[in-house]
Amino acid sequence: MSFYGKNRIPIPATKSYVALTVGLSLVITILFSPWRWSLPPFLLMVIAFWSVRNPHWMTMGSAMLLGILLDVVYNNTVGVSMLELLLVAYFMGRLRYRFEIYSFFQQSVIVFFIFFLSKAPSLLLIYLIQDIKFSWGFFLPSLLAGLCWFPLVMLMVFRLYRPVQDQLNTHTNL
Amino acid sequence: MKISHSPLFEKPSRSFSRLIIYVTVCLALFAVDTRAQYLNQSRAWVKNLLLPLETALISSQEYLSYSLRGLWDGLSMQRKIDSMHQEQLSLSNKVKELAVIKNEINQLRALHQLPARDNDPLMTAEVVARQYDGLSQKVLLSKGRNDGFRLGMAVISEAGLFGQISMLFERYAEVSQINHAGISIPVKVQGTTIHGVVYGLGEDSVEFRNFPQRYQVQVGDRLVTSGLDGLFYADIPVATITSIKPSVDNSGVLVTAEPLVDFSNTRFVATSLTNHQYGEWLDNLHIEQYERQPRKK
Lengths: 174, 297
Description:
Oligomer: heterodimer
Structural class of chain A: mainly alpha
Low-confidence stretches of chain A: none
Mean pLDDT of chain A: 83
Largest interface: A-B, 25 and 23 residues
Shape of chain B: elongated
Low-confidence stretches of chain B: none
Distance between the termini of chain B: 130 Å
């Protein structure tokens, strides 16, 4: 699906761009870690985006490694965030062929449900080791992720589209 | 006829099996970290690795938030100053209007030959020293002539009449308590028309004399200032009658009363009150209202 009209065409993302976005989202996650229950999960959204867009570079293994970092940042028991990231990467990877042809509204709804489903096992793990009371507020980040999906995608794919003229010139030069 | 699926379109689901493996690894790590605490060292190592980044980010975030808060505080302070300035302008206009009105009222008073309004301020003072030597019951106040105190002024506490200024200095005033020997105060029995005089005896109690013997007083009656001398304002509580005995020469009765003021524990006193001000003052203090007991038959 064309995000920026017919005058722009998509180009493949570079590894450095993927690393940059993941690093930035990790920085934002660390920066706003005290308010993580009332903010969209930026790192998770970026992983979901790259799992759809470029699943060969954002594999379940890399999601697991980032999950370890997230567990350390959040001071969780190792495995809690890992499992969540892993499930997100898996589900988004499975849906990647259909996901890109959906409208943004459908994408947001799917993102919300996937994040919701991925959050549940990690909450169960936390419940096993800590005496926490259930609250629907735990799923607020999932809802916010669904709402912020469109702006995030527009922001991320901005650099992945180039004007058609540039592309033609490149071909001509070749 | 059997239709078999073409293997060309079947794709083995390798990702699911990989997911199962990864989930198992996750759960294993979780169990190890929860039960055996083996991963604490690794966590500490990763934490130390991330610590500089974390510290730098949190420091910059705090610096940014402090800067924004400072900026916001400055802006809100400026807004508040502006609003206060506006308020001050409006108040100064009101003060000018009030001054004009006051001037007009004074002119009208002069025109109609009305007495000037009594604007006696409420002057309070603190008891700084006490003099109880068996002969005199006097206290020293923290204010004197410079503060507007005058000789002979009535001194009042929250319970009632305290005494009278008997000696005046520049910055101090000496007050003779109502139980000081030689002090006499014109009083009346509250709620009646029985007038008399209370005399200080140099003791804890005072004596009620010079009242018409044909009227009967009783224990528990409250004595208040009558205001007949023009020095003490009327209706200031003074004492409560505690005993009534026949006099030595059987010519009458000896009435003893106990002052309402606790002299030894009173710290703040006031003077130069008008009746109206004193009434308001008493109302604000919520002093227990007095009702005269019915006479015994």
